[in-house]
Amino acid sequence: MSTLVIKDLKVSVTENEQERLILKGVNLTLNTGETHAIMGPNGTGKSTLSETIMGNPAYHVVSGQILLDGVDLLKMSVDERARAGLFLAMQYPAEIKGVTNIEFLRAAINARRPKDDQISVTDFLALLDKNLAELNMSTSMAERYLNEGFSGGEKKRNEILQLLMIQPKFAILDEIDSGLDIDALQVVAHGVNAMASPDFGTLIITHYQRLLNYIVPDYVHVMMDGKIVKTGDAKLANTLEAEGYAGLRDELGLDV
Ligand code: ADP
Ligand code: MG
Ligand code: MG
Predict the structure, then answer these.
(1) In this protein, which residues make up the domain named ABC transporter (predicted)?
(2) Which residue among 17, 94, 129, 176 is least crowded, i.e. fewest CB within 10 A of its CB?
(3) How high does pLDDT run on average in the chain?
């Protein structure tokens, strides 16, 4: 089992040449085999948390720790974090000019394997075919340049293809549901559910409860004003949907 532990994490960003504290002490423990969801209103720091875990330099860790199996993640480069088994599906997936999807996927898989044990072309293509079929994707999409000219839905689907191919220990999926129609949402959810295993843990970040009808989390955390203010099971997402964040604010006596 692997564990990702976030301890009293405080993170700031630079705004108008001043530091503004966004995360104000986040505590969270993810184990492989578990599905966690973070919900919360816009602008509360959900993406800040995922960007910080992946090492985006725009996010400045003021204090606190992130440990992957006891190892200090904050000392690792973005590359090292990916090789250690983290995967981040970004809210706005990047286009990378001149690199095809297939080239990217092979490189990403091989980066996580020892030099003398790189994946063979045959094994790679077999794995690719299996996962393309899982996601109702065509081979031609895999041959295209990474995310270039992809629609919003295709980009999200492609992120899930990467997830299935790379088989990380932990994935942080930031708003993979935004802008998806119901069919694309189901395909994405199917892909994430296909990852389920004792060796895989996921953190799903979403505004809406809808995605959680398809990917049922073990834990739901609510983030408000840079902190996790409540943790519950999947039912918490339904309560939020019914009562809104305002209801929770009242319940907790928050004035944010
Ligand atoms: P959420 O994902 O919950 O909607 P974010 O983490 O994206 O929230 O943003 C939290 C706050 O931090 C917002 O006020 C946002 O404007 C600010 N913020 C996020 N990223 C940056 C950045 N790179 N530079 C400046 N401000 C940022
Ligand atoms: Mg947002
Ligand atoms: Mg966000």
Answers:
(1) 6-250
(2) 17
(3) 91
Nearest ligand to the CA of 23 is 1
CA 99 to chain centre: 22
Task: State the Cα torsion 117-119-121-122 to the nearest 10°.
Answer: 100
Which of 12, 21, 22 should be mutated for ligand 1, with most atoms under 8 A from CB? Answer: 22
Architecture, CATH, for domain 3-92+169-252: 3-Layer(aba) Sandwich (3.40)
H or E segment and range at residue 6: strand 3-15
256 pLDDT higher than 80: no
Tell me if residue 125 falls in helix, strand or coil. Answer: helix
Cα–Cα distance, 150 to 85 (Å, whole number): 26
Q: Whose CA is nearest to atom 24 of ligand 1?
A: 13
60-68, strands of its sheet edge to edge: 18-31, 3-15, 60-68, 71-72
Mean pLDDT of 128-142: 90
Type of residue found at 44? T
**Residues within 6 Å of ligand 1 by CB:** 13, 15, 22, 40, 42-48, 58
Does the pTM surpass 0.80? The reply is yes
Phi, psi (deg, nearest 5) at residue 126? -65, -45
Residues 6+ apart with CB under 8 A from 157: 135, 137, 184, 187, 188, 191
Closest CA to ligand 1's atom 23:
58
Domain map (residue ranges) of the chain: 3-92+169-252
- Atom of ligand 1 at shortest distance to CA of 56? 23
Ligand with the closest atom to the CA of 49: 1
- Report how far residue 34's alpha carbon sits from residue 3's, in angstroms, rounded to the nearest whole number: 10
